[in-house]
Design a protein that fits this description.
Blueprint (H helix, E strand, L loop, with lengths): L1 H4 L12 E9 L3 H11 L3 E3 L13 H23 L16 H49 L5 H4 L17 H6 L9 E9 L3 H11 L5 E6 L4 E2 L6 E2 L1 E9 L1 H14 L2 E2 L6 H57 L3 E2 L5 E9 L3 H14 L7 E5 L16 H10 L10 H16 L2 H16 L1 H5 L5 H8 L1 H18 L15 E2 L14 E2 L18 H34 L3 H32 L5 H10 L14 H20 L1 H31 L4 H16 L11 H15 L4 H25 L2 H25 L4 H39 L16 H8 L1
Antiparallel strand pairs: 1-10, 1-11, 2-10, 3-7, 3-8, 4-7, 5-6, 9-10, 12-13
């Protein structure tokens, strides 16, 4: 192990070293200090008021104020979006506006827009009513003219169409006269005209017929123009109707039905001269209203455009301010109420930057007191923080989806950058499909700045976030495809001529008897002559199955080696001696030996049956191997490896729990001795005079002031010792049965997992074979079959179907399948050997995160 101890440390293998800090900030510089720390984005504050509700916090009024401003900004944004205007993501810089001025400005803008919206709604409602009135006049007038020959004039005059001037004697226009209500009760044939939504017209007519028992006559016609629905705000098709009836009861029923169906009724005079005069007045009013509405919309859009230029800056300003006060609510006041005390985590490398930011905050706020920053010891586990970039971010997210690493735990994403895309490529190996994936990844990378500034769909956002993962998967797929010698399932003589040839010039028995080898093996990858040969499937199955086992054993050994580095880094010698050593022995005594047999068989060309060797290694270890012997001393080696595997099982199970029990008993006995010594010292201190007690109390206050809690603590030294002893006993509780059961479960899981995990890696063989065979079926049964016809249309259709099936089945479904299986192999088979994943992520207070959320 000395070789591993001398290796240089890997910076990316461990999370950043964290420091638990305490800040003592004067009130006058608190807001500016937190703002500067937010711009730095390297401090995670601890909530010291988690026992208080949000409404009991110190700065609740400031948070409410920012929340109200956020509501106004959302209202302005909604109005801009409804007007189909563009919001600038990065507006031109203008003079800075403080929060008070912004609050007043937002209030003015909101009040102005609400007033404009109210006036616009009133004008739009009047415009819609006049437009409907115009349509009713134009269509209903035709009905009335056509019915003049079927009824007497005296019977057609309706009571709702007889209008009188106002009581003050004022002169009204014809339009105003027609709108006036009438309470006449004349008898005879009457009519009601109006307009209704086209979708309700049929049901409306049936309801009228049933309500009047058929004593009505219903005329309808298409309005010809779209009218805005006052409820939904959409343009809808309407129908103009005229209902002829007789009697006051029928009139009341018809009006009720019109109200229930949302039909608008408008009076239409029978006199054609009056109709023309009213139409002219309506058209004149419509023109005036349209001009007024357009002017209002122009003024509104101009106001919204000026707001949109600064909306992003205002939103970020309010968000930052609210985030600052939310963070300040996590801080506590000291006993003097003049300083705020905060605690949190920061990376060790960031301490100089934090101190510099705090000094600038003190100078800029003109504070007479400086901000105190000091590092303390913490009892809780620090958060996990890995510095990533655009390339490694996606791989880190894949690992974090399983679980965030413990503090300073080995990071699997360092190795997953290579192993994940490689295992994917083993299942997806086809260099034609790999080129397609490479093209897609290059497009995402070349346009990453443009795509990163846009709002993408869920699928595109997922693909864009993993663009570098797709790039590596494509490159490794091309590499494995060259090894498999498959280009859309077609083999090519890329690296020279084949090593095989037919037995006779006609090659009639190539697919039955087979080929013969006549030169050196093919230089790289699978020989193209295996394609179509009768031994193709057995050869490729054997090759890919053995390759899967070798890759699986290598990756599992890597995981166990990482458990050694973890235990070595944290100084846990028990895990090295009684966990790492027996695990590495057990795995390699059985499955490492299998990997050795595979390599020896490939190198020697032996015909030994490895299934028989591995089975009878357990059933009859002393039996002669016969033809299955691959090398001298194999039988003795098998017996030795089997004994080592058997010994490794109790080695994993028993020593560690008993050693932990012994160490715990030693610690408890030492604690008991220390507690007895303290009690004897306390009895001696009780005899000391009152002056010395007062001095001790003064020293105690100063000492505790410099400790973790800021301020004067009214706690005696005796109480403090008792408290520390109880805390120490709480943390040192040891349950031997629980530890033993946990170790037993872990040992059984590893032993059974060594078998199941090795078998699990056979999915590499299965999916690679499935991908190859599916690609072959699409090529032979679609492309070649269509080209067998001497018809250009059939050939084009075959090419289109082949391209569609390749894109959606092989490049999408098979890609997702191989991705998920590679994910499973990393999460369970690889990371399960060393990775705990029960930490929590470092989430600093950062303004940059607010900007990313806004975008």
């Amino acid at each position: 192990m000395r070789f591993f101890d001398e290796l240089p440390p890997m910076e990316f293998l461990r999370s950043e070293k964290m420091s638990f800090m305490q800040l003592i900030i004067p009130v006058e510089s608190a807001q500016r200090a937190i703002s500067y720390l937010g711009e730095l984005g390297l401090v995670q504050f601890k909530d010291l008021n988690d026992d208080k509700s949000p409404f009991q916090r110190t700065f609740v009024n400031q948070v409410k104020r920012c929340g109200e401003m956020s509501r106004k900004l959302r209202f302005l944004k909604d109005q801009i979006n409804k007007s189909n205007l563009t919001i600038l993501a990065r507006p031109a810089l203008e003079p800075d506006t403080n929060l008070e001025e912004l609050e007043v400005l937002l209030g003015e803008h909101e009040a102005e827009l609400l007033e404009m919206h109210t006036n616009s709604e009133k004008l739009q409602q009047t415009y819609n009513e006049l437009l409907e009135f115009k349509l009713v006049l134009l269509k209903a007038g035709v009905f009335l003219v056509s019915d003049q020959n079927h009824a007497a004039p005296s019977e057609r005059e309706l009571d709702e169409h007889v209008y009188t001037p106002e009581e003050d004697g004022g002169t009204l226009s014809l339009l105003e006269q027609e709108i006036q209500p009438d309470f006449s009760n004349k008898a005879g044939l009457r009519f009601i005209s109006g307009i209704i939504c086209k979708s309700k017209a049929l049901i409306f007519e049936r309801m009228l017929f049933r309500a009047t028992r058929g004593n009505m006559f219903f005329h309808q016609a298409q309005a010809g123009e779209l009218v805005m629905d006052p409820v939904s705000g959409e343009m809808v098709e309407n129908t103009v109707f005229v209902v002829f009836f007789s009697g006051d009861q029928a009139k009341i029923k018809i009006h009720k039905i019109c109200d229930s169906f949302g039909a608008n009724c408008y009076p239409v005079p029978e006199d054609m001269t009056k109709q023309r005069q009213i139409i002219r007045e309506v058209l004149s009013r419509l023109t005036e209203l349209e001009t007024t509405l357009n002017a209002g919309i122009h003024h509104r859009n101009k106001a919204l455009s000026s707001i949109g230029c600064q909306l992003w800056r205002w939103t970020m300003m309010v968000k930052k301010e609210k985030a600052v006060y939310d963070t300040l609510n996590k801080l506590n006041f000291d006993v003097t109420k003049k300083c705020l005390v905060g605690e949190g985590w920061c990376p060790a490398f960031a301490k100089p930057q934090i101190k510099d930011a705090l000094e600038r905050a003190t100078i800029d706020s003109n504070s007479q007191l400086g901000i105190i920053f000091h590092v303390m010891n913490a009892t809780e586990s620090p958060p996990t923080y890995f510095r990533t970039n655009r390339f490694t971010q996606a791989f880190q997210e894949i690992v974090d989806a399983y679980g965030v690493a413990r503090y300073q735990e080995a990071n699997p994403s360092v190795y997953s950058v290579v192993t994940f895309p490689f295992l994917f490529a083993v299942m997806f190996g086809d260099w034609g499909h790999g080129i397609c994936l490479l093209f897609a990844a290059l497009v995402l990378i070349l346009y990453e700045r443009k795509l990163g500034s846009q709002k993408l769909g869920s699928f595109m956002e997922l693909a864009f976030g993993g663009r570098y993962v797709i790039l590596l998967m494509a490159l490794f797929s091309i590499y494995c495809g060259l090894i498999y010698n498959e280009f859309f399932s077609i083999p090519y003589h890329i690296f020279g001529q084949s090593a095989y040839r037919c037995r006779d010039p006609s090659c009639s028995d190539a697919h039955t008897t087979g080929l013969i080898k006549f030169r050196e093996p093919y230089k790289f990858g699978v020989d193209p002559s295996w394609r179509g040969n009768r031994s193709e499937l057995p050869f490729l199955n054997s090759l890919k199955m053995k390759m899967s086992i070798l890759l699986g054993i290598a990756q599992m050994n890597l995981g166990i080696m990482l458990s050694y580095f973890d235990a070595k880094y944290h100084g846990n010698s028990l895990d090295i001696r009684y966990q790492f050593v027996p695990q590495i022995i057990f795995l390699n005594s059985l499955f490492g030996y299998l990997a050795l047999l595979i390599v020896v068989k490939w190198c020697t060309g032996s015909q030994a049956d490895l299934y028989h060797v591995m089975i009878y290694m357990f059933l009859s270890p002393t039996e002669s191997l016969g033809d299955n012997q691959l090398f001298w001393g194999q039988k003795t080696l098998q017996i030795l490896l089997l004994l080592m595997a058997i010994i490794a099982v109790p080695w994993m199970l028993f020593p560690k729990p008993f050693i932990l029990r012994k160490l715990n008993m030693e610690v408890m006995s030492s604690q008991d001795r220390e507690r007895g010594n303290k009690q004897r010292k306390e009895k001696g201190k009780e005899k000391v005079g009152g002056n010395e007690q007062r001095n001790d109390k003064g020293k105690e206050k100063v000492g505790r002031f410099q400790g973790r809690t800021y301020g004067i603590l009214h706690t005696s030294e005796t109480d403090l010792d008792v408290e520390l002893d109880s805390t120490r006993e709480h943390h040192n509780e040891f349950n031997f049965s629980e530890v033993f059961v946990h170790q037993m479960i872990h040992s059984i899981e590893f032993i059974l997992g060594a078998v199941s995990n090795t078998a699990s890696y056979l999915r590499l063989w299965a999916l690679s074979l499935a991908h190859s065979e599916l690609s072959t079926v699409l090529y032979e049964k679609i492309l070649l079959l269509s080209f067998g016809y001497n018809n250009i249309i059939i050939r084009l259709v075959g090419v289109a179907i082949f391209a569609f099936a390749t894109a959606f089945i092989l490049l999408m479904m098979e890609t997702l399948s191989a991705f998920l299986h590679a994910l499973r192999l990393h999460w369970v088979e690889f990371m399960g050997k060393f990775y705990h994943g029960d930490g929590y992520k470092f989430t600093p207070f950062s303004f940059a995160a607010l900007a990313d959320d806004e975008e």
